[in-house]
């Protein structure tokens, strides 16, 4: 098994996203976390026109720095108190919601003799990170007085936990929070970091409020995925920058219904099984320990995914065209979640083709 990465296609997607955002005055931050900070992926994004990279894990930031990428990096995940010294040392800007954490960043920045930039994250509906809007002014008032800290903006995240899509109204609420902070504290916030790839849909519909000026983009650049609705399949040039391949280790005709007493499967789930009679099934040397199975889309017509255990992917290949043979490789297009898990797996070899 392996995952193949075409960085030239990632570069072209980056160009397309930057060109989509530029007329609206929106900066594109290139998010490399799904590829674990792979330097060639980062270089493809930079070659495509982004200036600022973003990462969520310090190990990935270290990987980028050790590869010679010395430009600005945003730390995406809220810093842990135990991480603040390294966050300040390795990145220039971070997303934050806890004043106590920003105080710790201030102390670390003072020790290191550098200024660290902070984006205050606001909750706008998806219920991941961010303080409630009514708490924002008090938090901002405390942050702006901290030495070696620069409050550069506010931000929000949507679509990652509850699947809530960004709207004009939710984005405008973020802007209104920024304007309350500005009016009360007599300052001008440089960044309205309005969201992620899903927010590109607002641009495409002409619904993005004008003050929003930054988006943190990973999925759209890597997979050509604007959001989870599937409404924008042809906006970006490549949905095929990644390929996952695995070898067929069994092909047999078997009853499709299980036989015998049943309990939860190995992952604590109760599988729903439809009795379709005898079916031709193939097993691949690939499993849940390697990749998010739900994010795989078979390239070969007539193949469907039945299920998976830790090390085995079960396919229905009855209608496969051409028929599936023992020992051959089958390939899949991985969606964002499958890319993220496969690139993080220590068991899947990576074949990365640099930009042309």
Characterise this structure.
With 356 residues, this protein is α/β, with parallel strands linked by helices. It folds into two domains: 7-223, Alanine racemase (TIM Barrel), CATH 3.20.20.10; 242-353, Lyase, Ornithine Decarboxylase, Chain A, domain 1 (Beta Barrel), CATH 2.40.37. The chain has helices spanning 7-21, 39-47, 58-66, 84-90, 99-112, 136-143, 168-185, 200-204, 219-223, 336-344, and strands spanning 2-6, 27-31, 52-55, 73-75, 93-96, 116-121, 149-155, 191-195, 214-217, 242-255, 278-284, 296-298, 304-308, 313-316, 329-334, 350-353. Strands 1, 10, 11, 12, 13, 14, 15 and 16 form an eight-stranded mixed β-sheet that branches. An eight-stranded parallel barrel has the order 2-3-4-5-6-7-8-9, surrounded by seven helices. Helix 1 (7-21) crosses helix 2 (39-47), helix 4 (84-90) packs across helix 5 (99-112) and helix 6 crosses helix 7. The longest helix is centred in the middle third of the chain and has 18 residues, at 168-185. The mean pLDDT is 96.
